[in-house]
Amino acid sequence: MPKQKSVASLEKYRQTLSNARESKKLCVAICSGTGCLALKNAEVTQSFIDEIDKRGLQSKVDIRRTGCLGFCKEGPVVMIFPREIYYVKVKPGDVPEIVSSTLVDNRVVDRLLYSGPDNRTVVCEGDIPFYKYQTRLLCDNNKKINYHSIDDYIAIGGYSALSKVLSGMTAEQVLQEVKSSNLRGRGGGGFPTGIKWETTRNAPGDIKYVIVNADEGNPGAFGDGSILEGNPHQVLEGLIIGAYAIGAHHGFIYVRQEYPLAIESISIALQNARDYGLLGSNILGSGFDFDVSVHRGAGAFVSGESSALMTAIEGRVGEPRPKYIRTAVSGIWERPSDLNNVKTWATIPLIINRGAAWFNTIGTEGSKGTMVFSLVGKVNNTGLVEVPMGITLRDIIYKIGGGIPGGKKFKAVQTGGPSGGVIPEKFLDTLVDFDELTKLGSMMGSGGMIVMDESTCMVDVARYFLSFLSGESCGKCTPCREGIYQMLKIFNRICRGYGEEGDIERLQEISMMMSRFSLCDLGISAPNPVLSTIKYFADEYEAHIRQKRCPAGVCKNLRSVASTPVSAGPV
Amino acid sequence: MNKVSLIINDRKVKADSGTTLLQAANDAGIEIPTLCHHEKLAPFGACRLCTVEIIKGGKSRLVTSCVYQVEEGLIVKTESEPVIAGRKLILEMLWARSPGVQILRDYGVKYGMDMDKFKTAPTNCILCGLCVRYCAEVKKKNAIGFVNRGTERAVMFYPEIASQECRRCGECFPLCPTGVLPSNYALQRVPHFKWPVGIFSR
Hints:
Largest interface: A-B, 32 and 34 residues
Distance between the termini of chain A: 63 Å
Number of strands of chain B: 7
Number of helices of chain B: 6
Oligomer: heterodimer
Strand order of the largest sheet of chain B: 2-1-5-3-4
Largest sheet of chain A: 5 strands, mixed
Shape of chain A: globular
Radius of gyration of chain B: 20 Å
Radius of gyration of chain A: 25 Å
Number of strands of chain A: 15
Order of helices and strands of chain B: EEHEEEHHHEEHH
Mean pLDDT of chain B: 94
Helix content of chain B: 25-40%
Mean pLDDT of chain A: 95
Distance between the termini of chain B: 53 Å
């Protein structure tokens, strides 16, 4: 492992690596992200290793395990470079044919290609509609690197932003660049990143911290996990640059317990970075010291809240604290602590390399850059999508997502997880933008996008999120703990056919109080799914409460032919 | 110590910087209801009953007065409409968990609480944390603590410690607003705790 003692030596090393790469060598890239691994891509990988070995092709073909390639619906995914042939739903039994046809004879195996709704097959990744309409600034790198290899990352230009920073930019200049980029936090709050960095930098105290929030607790969201698994170095590079700008010498990466592959990826990445002199003391000979520790979550959604996360890192129970004094000023052990989401950190190297001015050319007036969404639910093309801010919801769901399966009718799209709201069809042409989504009663959130169709019961959706939160609320403050409890009781009654006149008003009263009195954003935003479903789908509530009927046919007790509920009694 | 000027309920008040709004109001003779506040303990901000409305830079916000520190020029309203509406609902929710408690009844009368708003599901504990925090911060024994999360959150004696400490202490018992603490001490069979045979070296 060559320790890089200076920027110059890193650049020289990069040149060697990238020269070695440029040869037109064949490469089999197998998606080894969590999704494809669950679909047994490990066996596919082993089959490739065995087959290539058997045919003595090791010197001609590289095998590359990558992180999530994005098109999860079509997994297990295998890509063949340099042509970028995209094979879908690959099984171990397909491997000999791929090797003999594609690797040896350069012929495409038609039956393994993606075929669209028009039944025409597509050979290359870039031509598949799912990919064609995306802007994969962050996610595109996943296919180019082995997810555990620092050499691959360096070869494609990784750590060049760090080089640029350490070979001539002052901390102030870095800070200014990030401020000028107008980057807003990708964790849900959408707070201007540059301003948060500046507050941390200017806060009194010599010891400061930077933190990666990789807790990603929203049900249905897996973008942060995929980026951390597939390209940990890009996150790390952003973190080191941020630490330099802020004046922090220690960083924490808080990864949820339930992401073992991401924990493995980032741990390997940290060790490699240390070995290469990119982490530790005197990074690249610049005199800047910085190192990072990984902190594993203990199974709590609420610990993704910034003050709860910091309390957990302190070794205490991960419960939020009142944040009248910002955590940027008083965070971990009351020291200034800057916390940002995985995607925010991963965007920093791009901004440094290509400039704030470039970043401002993408997106809308109020929201610059791209956003990564976990597109899931009742949509044809489920997976990880990256789109420029300002794209319409319609384009995401129909052009990229391929529309609703089974010819069913779109009903709503939900963003922001348990803190977000539902958006009905009439707003499908809304531009994806922090403020636009908030205006509709939802929020950008950290990237979950759940599509719902005519067979989704909107009352049940609100009930689902409340039941999720009832187990995840820390329980410290009365409004959240008791508010969720009482609202859930009302929902359980409604969904079992015991809804009463006045239930909607009760829900609204509790919601109003929770949104103003709760200690943290979990409680403040818990009413959002309730209020937005009531606002846009009042007719479904009315059907449940007055007619004891579930229009979507989901609420079991309300499905009988007669209009009376079949269960034995109320909750 | 800097002195800070602010306005509480249309009255000009001066307070030392670093004081909480609750303290400043109390010093000026203005009462704010609290359940989880105790002068010997760090502010907890859990019951939310002490929430007040503040106006800063033209913007109105609700904050807990037990935690929020005084600021120059702050305008504070301790009994404005949203504050009263919220306090009423919080009291109603706590009543459902702990019906009959005197202090809830007293505050309830003041804020127009409807005792029948929610069906009672008594745990008889309002999770104010006074017992837990007193044992942690004042006695530094941690014989009692919170267990579980969310709607299942409860206060429990840690038998290994409590069986050794509580009999000669008992100082948290009178702090309990609902009076259930001494009963729980008995119900959780703390005095009868025996170390499981063979598991620990004792």
